[in-house]
């Protein structure tokens, strides 16, 4: 019974498509059921041709020269002053003048979508925050202390979530 119902639906939808094809759409040459819509070219308006609107928005939202310098210094793999997992960093945000200090757990380099995670223990509760350096709300990133012994053995320090003793040793610079 369901087989007959599916076949009837398929036939009905094909006939509907063929009627639509005869009105305003052309059939696709490699399939009798696929349709391609007619493309109507709409010329750009004079203001769009001059770049008004979009260019103003891009100029306001693009990072400033100082921010670009900070990003290249802290997040470029070949920079000597780059952020390393295990560093103690302070992140200042612009919306509410607040700062968050903690151990840098991980850096995720993805071009414009680059982010990093910072973890701290506040009132015996682990608090982790993810920051996007390209965000206009991020004001400044300060490196308080580099990781102990120059660098950590792992790129992602998520194991520190389970052992607050190790995290406090890193924060204290004893490891």
From TrEMBL:
Lineage: superkingdom: Eukaryota
Family, as annotated: Belongs to the bacterial ribosomal protein bL19 family.
| Protein name, entry field | Predicted protein
| Keywords per UniProt | Ribonucleoprotein, Ribosomal protein
The reply on keyword Ribosomal protein is: yes
Question: Which PANTHER family does the record match to this protein?
Answer: LARGE RIBOSOMAL SUBUNIT PROTEIN BL19M (PTHR15680:SF9), RIBOSOMAL PROTEIN L19 (PTHR15680)
Record-level GO cellular component terms: mitochondrial large ribosomal subunit
What is the native source organism of this protein?
Answer: Laccaria bicolor (strain S238N-H82 / ATCC MYA-4686)
The record, for Pfam families, names: Ribosomal_L19 (PF01245)
Is Zinc among this UniProt entry's keywords? no
